[in-house]
Amino acid sequence: MKNYAVIYWSGTGNTEIMAKSVFKGIKELNSEVEIYNVSEITVEDAKKFSHIAFGCPSMGAEVLEETEFDPFFTKLESNLSGIKVALFGSYGWGDGEWMRDWETRTENAGAQLFEEGLILGDKPTSEGEDECYQFGKKFAAF
Ligand SMILES: Cc1cc2nc3c(=O)[nH]c(=O)nc-3n(C[C@H](O)[C@H](O)[C@H](O)COP(=O)(O)O)c2cc1C
Questions:
Q1: Does the beta carbon of 1 sit less than 6 angstroms from any atom of ligand 1?
Q2: How many domains does the chain have?
Q3: Is the dihedral of CA 3, 82, 40, 12 positive or negative?
Q4: Is the Cβ atom of 12 under 6 angstroms away from ligand 1?
Q5: Are 66 and 97 in contact (CB under 8 A)?
Q6: What residues make up the domain containing 130?
Q7: How many other CB atoms are found less than 10 A from the CB of residue 43?
Q8: Tens digit of each residue's pLDDT (9 = 90 or more) over 60-79
Q9: 58 C-alpha vs ligand 1 centroid, how far in Å?
Q10: Which of 2, 29, 56, 68 is surrounded by the most beta carbons within 10 Å?
């Protein structure tokens, strides 16, 4: 059975806006979807999903957020084999390097990566929110 989770970290709310739109897009096609801030879900519970859309902005110097999100992802990483995974996040002044590294890491973990990670600069515009919605909708059919 397909079941979906959106799991995100967001410091100033930009990736959270993306997460809510991705969630809405998935929900349009599949009602079996839940959304969690990364602090609200355990690694054990996350393993139960067939599809996970992860959201995290570029932090530090082109890395995932290091206090909560990266430790969570690192623990889950060895269990991602066969899971369908979508990645998204907001960034500021960089060129998306954190997302390229994250895609490589996800593929190396054996996950089935959906498209390229969706990246948006700073706070999503209404067009950006729609991109996230469409991304979620397509992921629901993946
Ligand atoms: C401590 C810190 C480090 C950051 N490092 C990067 C970076 O390396 N590259 C980049 O493109 N943006 C960087 N940013 C900008 C954030 O990715 C950007 O503000 C993003 O919209 C934050 O998303 P959020 O609102 O979901 O937390 C950094 C922001 C902060 C606060």
A1: no
A2: 1
A3: negative
A4: yes
A5: no
A6: 4-140
A7: 15
A8: 999 999 999 999 999 999 99
A9: 5
A10: 56
Q: 3-state DSSP call for residue 137? A: helix
The pLDDT value recorded for residue 42 is: 98
Q: What is the CATH number of the domain that holds 34?
A: 3.40.50.360
CA of 141 from ligand 1 middle (Å) equals 30
Per-residue pLDDT tens for 106-124? 999 999 999 999 999 999 9
Contacts of 18 (CB under 8 A, 6+ apart): 8, 55, 88, 89, 90, 118, 120, 124, 128, 129, 132
Which residue, chain included where needed, has tokens 């190396």?
Answer: 108
The answer to whether residue 1 scores a pLDDT higher than 90 is no
CB 44 near ligand 1, within 6 Å: no
